[in-house]
Every structure is written in C-alpha cells, then in structure tokens.
Write a structure and sequence with these properties.
Layout (H helix, E strand, L loop, with lengths): L4 E5 L7 H11 L14 E5 L4 E5 L1 H6 L3 H9 L8 H5 L14 H5 L27 E4 L3
Antiparallel strand pairs: 1-2, 2-3, 3-4
Length: 140
C-alpha cells in the first residue's frame, strides 16, 4: 500500500445486552442481530488527498431500516450541496432476498386464521444494507 494511505481499526468486544437494546432503538430496525461488534471502526486516511473514510457497523445496520434508506434516497444531489454530503448519498439499493417458500405463502388467505396479525415490515430481515462507508474531508 502506498505510504500516503493509512488504515486504522478498533477491536472491541461485541456489545452488551444493554447496548444491544439501545442499538435497536437507534437503528430503527425490527430487530438487531444477536451478535454485533458495534463499537468497532475502520478508518482509511490520505492526508495529502484530504480524504477520510469511516466504516461503522451501526451505520451499516441502520441502513437496513427502510425508513432511513428512504430518507437518504429522497436526498438528491443539488448544486449547493457539499461534495462531502454528495459522496454519502445512497445510489444503489440491494435487492430484497426472499426464501424459496415465499412465493407459496404470498397468496395464502389468512382470513380464517385465528389471531392472525399482519406485521408491518420496517427493515430488511437479512440486514442487507446499501451502506458503503462515510467519506469526509480532513480539513474543510
């Protein structure tokens, strides 16, 4: 690797159950994985290029929530928007993953099922995320 590029990372243990509860509130997802290394980060820095990129597990997890995705998708690049903000917009949404049996259950009539409740799906059940890291300038 070119000496101008530097990488730093952290190695923390998985989050505690208390932190996991807070994480669930913060991300806006239906659930969170049972094991999350949410305090870890990867930083890629090039001082000469004024470039700083961060990869954060919680940010990636949060974008598996459909509401957060929609919020960023609605943000279109505008001439007055900073380059930094333009870099961090979402431009690709991953395809929804479906299990093989999903088609079989899709057209089922649940009217006769006792105590059936339709659940609003607010996040990707596989935690698939359009997250690609966050880019910043070192000096503004």
């Amino acid at each position: 690797m070119d000496a101008e590029w530097k990488m730093y990372f952290s190695r923390y243990p998985m989050v505690t159950t208390t932190e996991l509860d807070k994480l669930n509130d913060k991300t806006g997802t239906m659930t969170v994985p049972e094991v999350v290394y949410g305090n870890n980060r990867l930083y890629v820095i090039n001082q000469k290029a004024n470039f700083f990129m961060e990869f954060a597990p919680v940010d990636a997890l949060a974008l598996s929530a459909f509401a957060k995705r929609e919020e960023l998708l609605k943000s279109k690049a505008t001439p007055d928007m900073t380059t930094e903000k333009k870099f961090n917009l979402i431009d690709v949404i991953p395809k929804t993953i479906k299990v093989k049996e999903a088609e079989h259950w899709k057209d089922k009539d649940f009217d006769k099922v006792r105590d059936f409740k339709q659940v609003e799906i607010i996040s990707d059940w596989t935690y698939t995320s359009p997250y690609k890291g966050s880019i910043f300038y070192l000096n503004s």
